[in-house]
Amino acid sequence: MAHMSEPEPDKILELARQRITDRRSAEYQELIAATAQHERPWQFIFLGLVAILLLGFIFWPGSSLDWKLYAAVHGLVAQKHLVSLEQMALPVCARNIGIYGSFALSLGYLLLRGRARATGLPTRPLLITLGLFILLMLGDGINSVLEDSGRSYFYLPRNDLRTITGALFGVALTPIILLVFNQSLRADADPTQPVLTWGDLGWLLMLNGLLLLAVYSNSSLLYWPLALFSVISLVGELFTIVTMVIAASMGYRQRTTALRQLARPACLALIVTVGFVSLLALIRFSGTTL
Prior knowledge:
Layout: H1 9-59, H2 65-72, E1 82-85, E2 88-93, H3 94-112, E3 118-120, H4 124-148, H5 159-185, E4 190-194, H6 198-215, H7 223-249, H8 263-286
Parallel strand pairs: 3-4
Antiparallel strand pairs: 1-2
Helix pairs in contact: 1-8, 2-7, 3-5, 3-6, 3-7, 4-5, 5-6, 5-7, 7-8
């Protein structure tokens, strides 16, 4: 009678590893599902907090909306070298419009392009290009500081150059933030997908070019959209970073498959962000003439 051959030791080990992996995966999926269920009430709390803050900001008596926008970011940015549209100055300076406006545009584009789970690094030439973008802004910033302080400078600073180099910096910074976010919080991160490609960079440069055209159009019709967009973008980037830090510290590392699962840390981050922005504004106003 023929005896069946016993499985080879390597195959036995491989089968055991696979079963362990499957079991851990099932347990992990149950944990993620439980987390999502637990976060559901916090989603409504977060929406309620946002609604209360927006309504309070808009209808707070005694001040015009443009002054409130100026005051909201007064402690975060220097508010020098402001860009005016038909003599109405935007609340965020020329360089920061580029940095934070570019962040909002670039992040929105990358999410729409399906990079929400990407953790792959861009190619080396693309990384070098992004590094050059950062150096360009640093160089222009140093030149501007030299001129502001009355020292010798390399070339006459201009607001359009501040915005352009700021936008390039924002293009370089956004995939870095997205990459760190996905690596630290995503349970379904995709290391095979690069967070940025050359094609993405081309589209981002085009989108930011449209932003630059709008900022320097000198059209009063674009004042309110740009004023709101610049303030929301600045505070939004700060809120994103604070949310990422709080979520990681609360044990959300690699447990998130959808942004709505971060509702609880987002509520705390919203309170921290608003408190931080308000405190800095109060400190700065206390040392200036209103």
